[in-house]
Amino acid sequence: MSPLTAYALILVPPVAAALLGLFTARAGWAETSNLLAAAVSFAASIVFVTLSATEPVTALGGYLILDPLAGWVVLCVAAVYLLASIYAVGYMRTETTPARLPRFYALFAGFAASMFLAPVMNNLGLYWIAIELTTLVSTFLVGFDRSPEGTEAAWKYIIVVSTGISLALLGTLLWYWAGTFVLGRRYDMTWSLLEQAAPKTNTVLTTLAFLLVLAGYGAKVGLAPLHTWLPDAHSQGPTPVSAMLSGALLNTAMVGIIRALRIAEAAGDGRLARGGLILLGAISLLVAALLIVRQTGVKRLMAYSSVEHMGVVALGFGFGGPLGVAAALYHMLNHSLNKSLMFFGAGNAARLFGSKRMSSIRTVLRYTPAGGALWLAGAVAITGAPPFGLFLSEFTTLRAGFSGGYPIPALLMLVLLVVIFVGFLNHFRGMYFEPAPGTTPDAAVRLNGWVLAPMWLALIPLLILGLWWPNRLWHLFGLIAGTGGGS
Amino acid sequence: MTFTPLAASVFTLFTIVSLILAFVMLGSRWLKNYMYAFTAQCWLIAILSAAVGYYGGFPELYLVAVFTALFRGMLLPYLVFRIIRRMDIDRELHEVIRPSSALVLGAVLVILALAVARRIGVSLGNPGNVVVLAVTVMLAIKLIGFLMLAVRHEAISQILGLLVIENGIFLGSQILVPGMPLLLELVILFDLLIAVSCFSVLVNYLVAHVGSTSSMRLRRLRG
Fold first, then answer.
1. A357 has which bridge partners?
2. SS (H, E, C) chain B
3. Is the CB of B13 inside 8 Å of chain A's CB atoms?
């Protein structure tokens, strides 16, 4: 099978499911087709990532780039899409009327398709458009319940993110302009061509362009200070959507920054570019640490944890070197799995106790032993405790920082991670072990297998990835670091 | 890239007028005037595309000009006017600072844009006044768009602020990178149309479920 065929098998099923969801009125069909599409996409993404672990291949007239980086991010998206689709079967039936379910699944599958599209875009402009497309589709998912809060979150999301990525468009334009002095007035705006031209381009222009692109896509990744849309959108969307936003979308926007970093390195701007990335990552960690400690909403807590982890990924790529890049990529997958698990748990708890406020969620284990235990294990994992995957990737990021000549940011990261560890788990202590006689859970709510199974499916790989870093992944990360990101 | 003196003065005229129109928008409270200025700016950009196509030898820019006039000059204003009618408001009610102060701030932003453009111009070895002017106006319109987003809180003003930002980028791209692939320009134009349709749906939600079109009222979610 060629990489292109594998990629087509990833992209076509969600597109088909989205179309079916638009034209059918039957909730069951929409639900089943979305689930099937997610399963096929996930299987194909494993094949795709294996096939793409070679030299980068371009396809369809050079518009698609099927390289290991694209393969890896597509795999992260597909994993979250599958988990969230399973969860959605159990969750959405209770959240909305059957009449609105086909609309939901059409948007959901369309959102997944748009995220499969973005990482393989070989053209800076088309990548920008794909990212814009993910925003437009997911806005309606964020505001799906049509409550005042949901609408508010959707509005802030589309305004802040559109404004943010208009910076990236300006940066793209300046980059193209810088390239015209080397490549002539007309050329294809591909990542690799700009990288080739980079050593000969004007440094003032390329530096400005990189910083604009970083700020623009940084807004979409949720890096502070342009993270303000993230907690609102993540907390107000239906839970499967929160998982997709956090676990999948942020990674697809990170691809743009990684590829841009590659061009900046080629232009000899690497030190400054990585410094910018480290700065944004450190600010994100700081903001997340401060807000996690004093958070009251359970889904907002998870959202700020996403800001934190995107900060860690940014630091990993910023530290650079094979170690930093590998750590950041590994962190992406671990975070995707773990954050999905956390949102699923938060969605279950919010349903069970009828509130998103953590003060109403008390003695979780008494009401849902299995789900509660899984969620608690996930909470331990997401704060970076061993033996789970995030411990390994955060530890490697720190190693990369200390060995790569960035001891102060690495030290800062360590301190902030400890603060977050304490703050985050303190909220869980409250929710699990503090008695609160005033709250009684909704006895009618039963958590079925559909909402518990994806939690198992997320936790088990997370545990395996924490105990054993497969050699083939090292090889894959080495390929990505060799062709970019690293120094 | 060098242009003939005639072409250079034509481009200069169009870019300066676009900048003035951005100030007209910044200084007006009435949404109608705001929209007329925006429409005029879009048409200017369309004519500019055609002019660059003519003087620079880029025949594909004629097509871009036609689509700019059609999408940005006609369809977009139509969509936005429809939103305004549905919201039943005719002026910006939720401004943070007075238009006169906003104009002064806008002037400061133009000076900032000029400083950045000068710096770029020097590093490129003085590429000619038109290029420096184009960079200045592109950055200035972009910054003015940001200013509008920051000081105006009516939903429609925020959409317009975003569109002004994109106008600035589009204006700059016509002069700086006329050779940019045609496909890309068309897709970006189309993308804008979809974005505005999404906004119009959201405005409906805002009216129906929040009961207000001012984003100042959108403050349930914080912290």
1. A297
2. CCCCHHHHHHHHHHHHHHHHHHHHHHHCCEHHHHHHHHHHHHHHHHHHHHHHHHHHCCCHHHHHHHHHHHHHHHHHHHHHHHHHHHHCCCECCCECCCHHHHHHHHHHHHHHHHHHHHHHHHHCCCCCHHHHHHHHHHHHHHHHHHHHHHHECEHHHHHHHHHHHHHHHHHHHHHHCCCCCHHHHHHHHHHHHHHHHHHHHHHHHHHHHHCCCEHHHCCCCCC
3. no
Upstream peptide bond of A387 is cis (omega within 30 degrees of 0):
yes
> Whole-model pTM?
0.93
Q: Is A114 on the interface with B (CB under 8 A)?
A: no
The pLDDT of residue A487 is above 50: no
Each domain of chain A, given as residue ranges in start order, spans 3-483
DSSP for A171-237, written as a single string: HHHHHHHHHHHHH-S----BHHHHHHHGGGS-HHHHHHHHHHHHHHHHHHHT-TTS-THHHHHHHHS
CB atoms within 10 A of CB A385: 16
Tell me the C-alpha distance between B61 and A351, whole Å. 55
Please state whether the peptide bond connecting residue A225 to the residue before it is cis, i.e. omega within 30 degrees of 0.
yes
Inter-chain CB proximity A154 and B205 less than 8 Å: yes
- Give which of A173, A183, A232 to mutate to test B binding, by max B Cβ within 10 Å: A173
Q: What are the angstrom distances between the C-alpha of A48 and each of A39, A74, A250, A476, B44?
A: 14, 9, 21, 12, 47
Domain locations in chain B as residue ranges: 5-217
**How many angstroms away from the CA of B13 is the closest CA of chain A?**
22
Q: Token digits for B73?
A: 């000059």
**Cβ separation B120–A204 shorter than 8 A:** yes
pLDDT in tens, A279-322: 999 999 999 999 999 999 999 999 999 999 999 999 999 998 89
Token digits for B86?
């549905």
